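Slide 14.
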Amino acid sequence: MLLYSSNITPRLQYIIDFISKELFNETIVITNDKEAFVNHKNPKINYSENDFSDEEFYIKPVSLLFETDIKQQPVQCFELNYHKAFFQTSGDFPFDIFAASFYLLSRYEEYFPFEKDEYNRYAHTNSIAYKENFLKQPLINIWLQDLKTALKQKFPDLLFRQASFSFMPTYDIDVAYSYLHKGRLRNFAGVLKSISSADFQSVKQRIDVLNEKQKDPYDAYEWLDSLHLYCRLKPYYFFLVAKEQKGYDKNISPNETALQDLIQYHANGYTVGIHPSWQSNDDEILLKEEIEWLEYIADKKILHSRQHYIKLTFPETYRRLLTAGIEKDFSMGYGSINGFRASVASSFFWYDLKNEQQAKLQIFPFCFMDANSFYEQKLSAQQAMEELLNYYRAIKKVNGLMITIWHNHFLGTDPMFAGWKEVYEIFLKEEVYWDM
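Slide 15: predicted structure.
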């Protein structure tokens, strides 16, 4: 496949590389040689101001991929095949799919001043996906299916990559245990808090756990091992290892043998990554220290990351992660609502808009987090099951990548999360397992 453009830019090369990976087994070659393009006898795409012949697939471009600055774009959505599109144009395709996909993948809209949520993050209500009601759709994957159909009509013999649905379970270990290994002072304070709120059941449970009469309610690790083994899944675990427990960083100390043992156990059988503390969000030195400490405990190089509370700011967060040696990040999503922040169910490389280049950081977007369903969307376990199934069906339809986030405390025995463990087990065993 050959693509012609009079101007080959880093933005254009980036999005064409992404689309090549999604649709074909080989890279689409970009040329600015008009004569070579016109004489090319195989399938070809003309991405320029003027069409040349009926033998090409023509998309008239908007200006976004040929710009070198960051400015407000005229984004006006319209209906196309029962879903949204924007950057409407002319040719063999009704909109500039290259520019529109780049706009969403690069998180272009997040580089402007925006309204912040209660955690000082980019509020999802700012996004075009939320405003235009496509947040719950892997829209780029849907567009690519439309493009595939259109290209197939133009070039019947064109071969495409055979994609398949895949599922990637991930877990954030923010608080490894509810009562265990927290020290006398923290447990005593917890007892006083429960008594002051007349929660005597929690007082009894805490005492029973500390006296080894019952299992800690947040300890779901053996159960998860069995579930992964049954479903033949390879999970990712992200550990919070903040040395100072304050604010939103409430895990037990990484100096505790119990947390070290837990990390080492999971590092021996699974992929483990860093869950950068809230304190390290604007502290490169602290971030590096946390990664190095996790590497020391796990006895392996740490290349994977997910931001605690999904604290993600462009381009600062990703630049800090790259500087710290992270190669794959799993933070692309919202910490306030479930859905597709980048409107895609595929991994992709981050494009640094301010440096105008593709970075070496690979992004793995998630669509569902238990905490969003429970705390933010106020869903019951059964409603969360329906939400999970909706994402599953949407992603399976486009043969995409489904990534979910669960926390160990949702999957243990804490009465607050009754039913959530069962929902997850049913989802994996009755839906995902049969697709793997």
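Speaker note: The radius of gyration is 24 Å.
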